[in-house]
């Protein structure tokens, strides 16, 4: 099992709608570590670390997000591997 970290930036109506909470729930179900954080430009940044296949599942979920949100775009890029404990909301 190779562990990797990915940075995803989600744009759309993703703040004030429980997006980070639901993302945290999905990431924990997949056994990922990292965080979800609101950015000043209205987007949400997600850093997810774990198995590539599980990160891809989270990425697919992020393209839709929870019912309360509207996702316009999700960018996806590799980032340096870090050891996070759990998955948190920042």
Automatic annotation (TrEMBL):
Coiled coil: none annotated. Pfam families: Acylphosphatase. Keywords: Hydrolase. The keyword Hydrolase applies. It comes from the Bacteria. It is an enzyme of class 3 (hydrolase). InterPro entries: Acylphosphatase (IPR020456), Acylphosphatase-like_dom (IPR001792), Acylphosphatase-like_dom_sf (IPR036046), Acylphosphatase_CS (IPR017968). It catalyses: an acyl phosphate + H2O = a carboxylate + phosphate + H(+). Its EC number is 3.6.1.7. GO terms for molecular function: acylphosphatase activity. Belongs to the acylphosphatase family. This is Acylphosphatase. It comes from Vibrio gelatinilyticus. The gene is yccX.
